[in-house]
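Shape matters. Shown next:

___
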Amino acid sequence: MAAIEIQKGVKVSLEELLDGVSQMDLSSLEKFSDEINRLIARKKHPRPTERELELISQIYQPLEEKIQLRYDELFNKNSEDKLTKKEHKELLKLVEVAENHNVKWLAALVELAQLRGVSIEEVKNQLGIKNPDILS
């Protein structure tokens, strides 16, 4: 297996690197994954324009963590029919925030695809973005 030189004279195998990465907490692992995806995108398109960089940054910008956590909490309570009226109103506002975030995300994907002259699916492939699992 290939070795990776972390610093001059310090080499680790890919297996050792993956073992270390597997020990990261979820939040750090997601950030690490985002950075890896950015590196892959840069290697596939080594000299993106400034606008492409702005769009890529926007595409990788997650929903603010505290908003996502609260949304998840209220969504789960709603699934169990345990929401108060106040929490239901809050959930509706958070749904709107999440939808606005998704619209901006999709608009950035569309513009990037247009700039590169490829489909949205191709841009997602280039950036290492996978389609979410469909809930049944």
Notes: Residues 24-127 form one domain. The radius of gyration is 19 Å. DSSP finds six helices and two strands in the chain.
